Amino acid sequence: VHLTAAEKSAILDLWGKVNVGEIGAEALGRLLVVYPWTQRFFEKFGDLSSASAIMSNAHVKSHGAKVLASFSEGLKHLEDLKGTFAKLSELHCDKLHVDPENFRLLGNMIVIALAHHHPSEFTPCTQAAFQKVTAGVANALAHKYH
Amino acid sequence: MALSPAEQEMVRALWKKMGTNVCIYVTEALERTFLAFPSTKTYFPHWDLSTGSAQIKTHGQKVADALTLAVNQLYDLTGALSALSDLHAHKFCVNPINFQLLGHCLLVTLARHYPGDFSPAMQMSLDKFLNLVTSALASKYP
């Protein structure tokens, strides 16, 4: 993904303040609430019967943290997202059978969670930079699909 | 995918809370859309799309008024937005995907300004509402 120096700086500045576990849990929780069909991948997570059940579900929190930790790794390799996420792409296609459209949705949930928790830092320019990154990660995760 | 009574109430309550600031937030959402999704600028080649532009503010007011109309006519969005659908389909020829991009940026804007109100349930209600608005806007497309 092609980012200007200013965009890279905006991303890393904000990311330095982010509680990765908290944002990850919120983003995944919001995905499962707002787009209920995504729950199909998490049948073993237990009670997902309501918004409050989802947001307080320990499996959702833990998995959300794991997903965002992986995203965080990606931020260290912005010049080679496809390489960084190659193995995860194969996993999501061959084992997990996830429609890549859902990566785009989760990317938007990460953006919304960031805006929610960091309102003053999440300027239009910072959002634009993050939209580029989430699109790049979604594409990278879809790259090995066949 | 109609809004349940509870979801309708959530949307109306937030709209009431926003009061006369709807225009300010829609204008911010438009600015975010143009920056985050540059392809959307192709529909406004003759405008000044820089931050603070008077043209974006004017358009923000129009969009805000249309959304407020929609909130007040949730029972008949297709009817309420029929004329706007004609305009966007036949005169401006806007690809409807762009309405979703603006909708996303409006959610981002509201998450920033109303963090205490922006629960997952509120986000879902707003998301459904904006999808219904998008469908209504696309209803006159050939």
From TrEMBL, chain A:
Belongs to the globin family. It comes from the Eukaryota. Residues 2-146 form the Globin domain. Involved in oxygen transport from the lung to the various peripheral tissues. GO terms for molecular function: haptoglobin binding; heme binding; hemoglobin alpha binding; metal ion binding; organic acid binding; oxygen binding; oxygen carrier activity; peroxidase activity. PROSITE patterns: GLOBIN. Transmembrane segments: none annotated. It comes from Cavia porcellus (Guinea pig). One of its GO terms (biological process) is hydrogen peroxide catabolic process. This is Hemoglobin subunit beta. GO terms for cellular component: blood microparticle; haptoglobin-hemoglobin complex; hemoglobin complex. InterPro entries: Globin (IPR000971), Globin-like_sf (IPR009050), Globin/Proto (IPR012292), Hemoglobin_b (IPR002337), Hemoglobin_oxygen_transport (IPR050056). CDD domains: Hb-beta-like. Keywords: Acetylation, Heme, Iron, Metal-binding, Oxygen transport, Transport.
Automatic annotation (TrEMBL), chain B:
The keyword Transport applies. GO terms for biological process: hydrogen peroxide catabolic process. SUPFAM superfamilies: Globin-like. Residues 2-142 form the Globin domain. The keyword Phosphoprotein applies. InterPro entries: Globin (IPR000971), Globin-like_sf (IPR009050), Globin/Proto (IPR012292), Hemoglobin_a-typ (IPR002338), Hemoglobin_oxygen_transport (IPR050056), Hemoglobin_pi (IPR002339). One of its GO terms (molecular function) is iron ion binding. One of its GO terms (cellular component) is haptoglobin-hemoglobin complex. Keywords: Acetylation, Heme, Iron, Metal-binding, Oxygen transport, Phosphoprotein, Transport. PANTHER family: HEMOGLOBIN FAMILY MEMBER, HEMOGLOBIN SUBUNIT THETA-1. Belongs to the globin family. This is Hemoglobin subunit theta 1.
